[in-house]
Design a protein that fits this description.
The structure is a single chain. The chain is α+β, with helices and mostly antiparallel strands. α4 (507-514) crosses α5, α5 runs antiparallel to α6 (546-554) and α21 (1156-1164) crosses α22 (1175-1194). Strands 37, 42, 43, 44, 45, 46, 47, 48, 49, 50, 51 and 52 form a 12-stranded mixed beta sheet that branches. Strands 18, 19, 20, 21, 22 and 23 form a 6-stranded antiparallel beta sheet that branches. A 6-stranded mixed beta sheet has the order 58-57-56-53-59-60, sandwiched between helices. The longest helix is centred in the last third of the chain and has 20 residues, at 1175-1194. Helices cover 17% and strands 27% of the residues.
Length: 1222
């Protein structure tokens, strides 16, 4: 028997000369020199087995991957943890391989390249990667991947892109090994295929085992395999290692081992030494080149009965690593100190923390602040006893002379107005002058008294101050006292809120989308219809547009146009909000047009309404906003080419602003807004176009002729560029100079809302009382000598006439900007029809504005809208037919009085505040440019708001105007959701098709009816984590709440013979990244929402949503616990009389709400939610609690039972006995 001595063959450990004393040179059996160095429990503990091990070929690292998808590296033979990171949440690590760029981790469906520090380089997955098992880095630095799939996939590691796929047959490829001449691939059937490294074509095939291939390795000219053979109709482990000589492509004498071989590797430092491993933990070193019997020395890895899953050999041959099924890593070495590579690169470690230099106790110069304060629980040395210290208070600074001069004494108390030169509730003290630089004078301000220039509050973005109760204790009524509902602004891409409001008040569009329903999962038309239904029913309470924004984010076109903004201040700084508004309205109109092209004609009491001529491209959007245009291109050679097309909006083209006069001085030309619109609708311009006759691009005269006028005219003004904005500003200045209208010099009294309330309220009898009384609200505050109106270049009305030759004539309407005459003008509209024969009357109805804060450009940009709500909407919401302007700012809605109507068309030009307005069905999108007027700089904020000085001239960016012809006067709205929605079941999970689910769908004889009880509960996952900060006083403040997404919805029958049986239990599929499944509180596990691995009843949110909408529309009564938040996140508005919330039923006034778990234990005697939450269990519990409440109500014992409940809760600290959770 040939014996190898480690001292003779092992390379030097330190990279220097061979030290024979490092190893025993005695007569050791082959493999006997390896000893156990370390045995550790890997990350993941015994819950996850070690599925992959790999020694780093560049550094002294050992990499481990486990069945939980986690990767950890260990440094040197001491196995010190170096890096640790998660690769996949559900799939195990199949194989690890190191390259120069980092570590490659293979899972069954993806490949990830990470730096050795743990940072991701790329993560690649595709449809070609289905059930991966192995990978191999080729000589050309590409990656081959194979598995239980009929093809190999080659990946470019430099770009992270797939290069090609190669067919390998149905047996797949489960093992890949690298050889200088071949790519060796083993399949599950026991064959090893040798392929050309360049073309990957099959060169040779070796039939190694008749049953299955377990493992093989190749080194030099030898290929050795182990596996299973078929014996008597069953598979058995073959005790022989099959050896093949690659020079002759034939098998040579097999090698017998003493245990069932499962894994094998060549030891890299030796030409023919092979390490063979069994699943039970034995390993043996054999020599494939020896003709004698192999060594009988067998090592045993202590696995505690667990099977070995993987092992690897170091490149130096000095170390072997084994991983078992309970998470243990065993490292064997040839000595106490081994290296993994002959020549390793240094490993990068984190910079050590520099120690702090000591300070002598007598050192008086070094400031103590250079030493950070340590954390300690006891008293510090600086905490002197009270008897040794004397408190000295800071001297109060002198009172401002301006306050003393303006003070009025009433008995012993002096009253003075706040000069506004100091921050409220803060008193400045003189700075410390001891050896430090300080500023003697405050910062200069361009405004008097240091006043900061700010945006009026009604234009600012309202920041919600979240508490531990979230939205529950936030009073939205302070911001909206109207009957209309706003939209919450805490979601990503909620900048579109006020543009959605503009679309909502387009009556024909609203009715059409409420009637629309299709089977597409992400349809903007459907989601807008659902959102409009919420706005109809919410009655002033804000709605959350999360489902619409979710569908909006999934559209690749929206992302390509830059309409999807990351939720960060940097993204807002880079975004151009004026351009964003214009692109958004263009994209949404086009998207809804394409989604509703098959929409049937709108019916009005059985008759088809008037609309554009029908064609295959007709839709409700084209019927309302569309216009037919004939475009004629005339080349200078005389050839003409005409083309008919449809458009949803027009672009304003401005004429030349300046006219050259004598002396070559340019003077601006005055144009009316009607002239610009006429010029843009009948546009003639020279463009470069292809001429078929000249066969070349030629300057071509392009003429646009209208064939029909739209019902709603959309004008894109393009004022995100300086020339257009300058044109508007110049026209406004010329118009006001011509009419001699200047800023008034007289200031009326302070408005009522800015006065201090009178202590006697409405009981005050003083006729000259200057304090505020509620009864004064009914009095007019208009100053007779004060002119509120300035002439605006933008008219409130336009009249457009279409000539037979396609030309248009546009003139301004009879209604002027004087806001005091607006109502009177509306009453006289009927009398002017005879004078405007042939003209269509278009009126301004809404303005959406982008307001830019000059103090923080981009960060505090806000989009608002002014909308003239028609009598139809008022009748629907509050029953009174009137027409009124409102200001919409997310969830803030304020009525615009007649004295503030210049806020709509704009009056002042001299402001440093940019505002973009959108006007729609009577709507305008404009840009505002505001600066503080010189004559009004001494006005207070209240006076400026009252005078209308901040009412800004709109530099129109996008205009949508509607015809006065009542073509869509009384459109019928019928819910498109019918009872057959319960018959359509969408199942997305492939594994769930043949499983039994814990619910029974509704039968035909038990369809829902009005008043039917339905118990419901929902579970949620987190898409974005909550952002919070810790204040200086230690309290926690929420900056942005977490974004939730519904993950499971369950509904249970509340009455009938099958009471308590669920009929809906849907898991909601999501395409967005989930950052927290909240398993403890939701019961949702990773993988439950993934269609490829889920075994749940997985469906789309839209499919479940329309079922709930049907239940709401039919009038069922929902029973649940905390349903308010559930409905809010799902985007449903349920009338209060249809909700039976046990959280509110079992609550005393002004007392805390009780958890469902404690209520179930106290009233029902059952313990629920022991380990996790289950929505079916919670629904049933809420139903039983409601039954209990009705019993107490019949016995007139509700109040008594609630008092007992709160007493028991206080005694038990609201904990269920026998548990630790509250």
């Amino acid at each position: 028997m040939m014996e190898y001595h480690v001292g003779e063959f092992a390379p030097p450990i330190d990279g220097g000369e061979m030290n024979q004393g490092q190893f025993s040179v005695g007569s050791l059996a082959l493999g006997q020199e390896y000893i156990l160095l370390h045995s550790i429990l890997a990350d993941g503990g015994n819950h996850f087995g070690v599925s992959a091990l790999s020694f780093d070929l560049q550094e002294e690292l050992l990499w481990m991957g486990n069945q939980g998808g986690h990767v950890t590296s260990y440094y040197s033979c001491d196995l010190q943890k170096y890096t640790s990171f998660q690769v996949d949440a559900t799939n195990e690590i199949k194989q690890l391989a190191t390259v120069n760029a980092g570590i490659l981790a293979l899972t069954s469906a993806s490949i990830r390249l990470s730096q050795r520090r743990g940072l991701t380089v790329f993560n690649h997955s595709s449809e070609q990667l289905q059930d991966l098992q192995c990978m191999m880095v080729t000589q050309s630095e590409t990656l081959l991947m194979g598995g239980n799939q009929p093809h190999l996939v080659e990946l470019n590691l430099a770009r992270g892109e797939e290069m090609r796929t190669v067919d390998v047959g149905e047996q797949g490829c489960i093992i890949l090994r690298r050889h200088p001449r071949f790519v060796c691939a083993g399949d599950i059937g026991g064959k090893v295929t040798l392929r050309d490294p360049t073309t990957l074509k099959v060169e040779h095939t070796l039939e190694s085992h008749t049953g299955m291939l377990a493992d093989f390795d190749v080194h030099g000219n030898q290929l050795v395999t182990c596996g299973l053979s078929s014996r008597h109709g069953a598979l058995a482990v073959d005790p022989f290692l099959m050896v093949y000589d690659l020079r002759i492509m034939r098998a040579v004498a097999p090698i017998q081992v003493m245990f069932p071989p499962c894994l094998l590797r060549f030891v890299p430092a030796f030409t023919s030494r092979l390490c063979v491993v069994s699943q039970s933990g034995q390993f043996q070193l054999v020599d494939t080149g020896s003709s004698t019997q192999p060594s009988l020395y067998i090592h045993q890895v202590e696995t505690g009965g667990a099977v070995l899953l993987t092992f690897d050999t170091a490149a130096s041959g000095q170390a072997l690593a084994f991983g078992d099924a309970v998470g243990n890593i065993n490292l064997f070495g040839a000595s106490d100190q081994v290296t993994f590579n002959p020549f390793s690169q240094p490993t990068e470690f984190a910079d050590p923390v520099e120690p702090l230099h000591p300070i002598d106790i007598n050192d008086e110069l070094t400031p103590l602040s250079t030493i950070p304060m340590p954390y300690c629980t006891g008293k510090l040395l600086s905490d002197w006893p009270k008897e040794l210290v004397k408190p000295v208070y800071r001297r109060t600074p002198p009172i401002d002379p301006q306050i003393i001069n303006s003070m009025k004494m009433v008995r012993s108390i002096g009253y003075a107005p706040n000069p506004g030169n100091r921050v409220r509730n803060q008193v400045p003290y003189p700075p410390d002058r001891r050896g430090r630089r300080y500023r003697e004078t405050p910062r200069e301000s361009p405004l008097p008294n240091g006043e900061e220039e700010t945006v009026p509050q009604r234009y600012q973005k309202i920041e919600i101050k979240y508490s531990k109760m979230g939205f529950d204790d936030f009073d939205f009524n302070l911001f909206n006292r109207t009957c209309f509902s706003g939209l919450e602004a805490n979601l990503p891409n909620a900048y579109s809120n006020n543009m959605i409001q503009v679309l909502y008040f387009v009556e024909p569009l609203r009715c059409a989308l409420l009637n629309h329903l299709c089977h597409r999962e992400f349809c903007l038309a459907c989601e807008l219809g659902f959102l409009f239904n919420m706005l109809d029913k919410a009655q002033g309470f804000p709605c959350q547009p999360s489902n619409f924004l979710r569908a909006f984010r999934t559209l690749p076109e929206a992302s390509a146009l830059g309409l999807i903004l990351p939720d960060s201040d940097d993204a807002r700084k880079k975004a151009s909000f004026p351009r964003l508004v214009q692109s958004w309205i263009r994209f949404v109109l086009q998207q809804i047009h394409s989604e509703t092209q098959q929409l049937s004609p709108v019916e009005n009491q059985g008759e088809t309404t008037e609309k554009l001529p029908e064609n295959e491209h007709s839709s409700i959007v084209s019927n309302v906003f569309g216009a037919s245009i004939a475009i004629c291109n005339r080349c200078r050679c005389g050839s003409e080419k005409e083309q008919d097309t449809n458009t949803l909006l027009f672009t304003l083209v401005y004429p030349d602003l300046y006219l050259s006069g004598n002396g070559q001085e340019k003077s601006p030309i005055q144009h009316s807004f009607a002239d610009v619109v006429q010029h843009s609708l009948s546009l003639e311009q020279t463009v470069t176009a292809w001429c078929d006759k000249c066969v070349i691009y030629q300057p071509t005269l392009q003429t646009k002729k209208l064939k029909s006028l739209p019902n709603v005219l959309v004008l894109s003004c393009g004022l995100d560029h300086a020339p257009g904005a300058n044109f508007w500003k110049t026209q406004m200045e010329l118009l006001n100079e011509k009419e001699g209208k200047n800023i008034p010099g007289k200031v009326p009294e302070v408005p009522l809302s800015a006065r201090k309330p009178c202590r006697y309220a409405n009981n005050c009898t003083r006729p000259d009382c200057k304090f505020f009384h509620e009864k004064d609200k009914t009095k007019s505050v208009e100053d007779p000598g004060f002119n509120h109106n300035y002439t605006s270049w933008l008219p409130l009305e336009l009249k457009i006439k279409l000539e037979p030759d396609g030309k248009v004539k546009v003139k301004e309407g009879d209604s002027k900007e004087e806001v005091s005459k607006i109502k009177q003008q509306e009453q006289e509209d009927d009398n002017t029809e005879e004078e405007n024969e042939g003209y269509e009357l278009y009126q301004l109805t809404a303005v959406v504005s982008v307001v830019q804060d000059p103090t923080e450009p981009g960060v505090k940009d806000n989009i608002i809208s002014c909308i003239k709500v028609s009598p139809t909407h008022h009748v629907r919401h509050q029953g009174s037919a009137c027409s009124q302007w409102y200001l919409f700012n997310d969830f803030t809605i304020l009525p615009i009085t007649q004295f503030r109507t210049n806020e709509i068309t704009g009056t002042q030009l001299d402001y440093q505040l940019e505002k973009k307005l959108t006007k729609q069905i009577k709507t305008l999108h404009s840009k505002l440019d505001v600066q503080r007027p010189k004559d009004e700089q001494n006005y207070s904020d209240a006076e400026r708001n009252y005078l209308g000085i901040v009412e800004i001239h709109p530099h129109t960016m996008l205009i949508l105007v509607t015809s006065s012809g009542d073509r869509f006067s009384s459109l019928l709205v019928q819910s498109p959701i019918a009872a057959d929605v319960f018959e359509e079941d969408i199942q997305l999970a492939a594994r769930g098709l043949h499983l039994h689910f814990p619910f029974k769908p509704l039968a035909h004889d038990e369809l829902p009816f009005a008043g039917m009880l339905v118990a419901m509960d929902a579970e949620f996952v987190t898409l974005n984590q909550e952002e919070a900060e810790i204040r200086s006083d230690g309290t926690r403040s929420t900056i942005r709440p977490s974004q939730l997404s519904v993950a499971r919805i369950s509904c249970v029958r509340g009455e009938g013979p099958q009471e308590g049986v669920p009929f809906i239990d849907d898991y909601i599929s999501t395409q967005e990244q989930v950052v927290d499944y909240m398993t403890k509180f939701s019961g949702i596990e990773p993988g439950d929402l993934d269609a490829s691995v889920s075994n749940k009843h997985l469906t789309t949110l839209k499919d479940t949503y329309i079922k709930l909408r049907f239940l709401i529309d039919i009038g069922v009564k929902f029973v649940g616990h905390g349903l308010k938040n559930d409905f809010r996140v799902i985007n449903l508005v349920v009338p209060p009389d249809q909700v039976r919330d046990t959280a509110l039923l079992f609550q005393l006034p002004n007392k805390r709400m009780i958890s469902l778990r404690f209520l179930a234990w106290h009233f029902l005697g059952i313990k629920i939610q022991s380990e996790t939450h289950d929505s079916i269990e919670d629904s049933k519990t809420a139903l039983w609690l409601y039954r209990k409440y009705t019993e107490l109500e019949k016995e007139d014992r509700v109040h008594e039972a609630l008092k007992e409940l709160y007493e028991a809760g206080r005694d038990l600290q609201w904990k269920v006995p026998g548990t630790d959770d509250t």
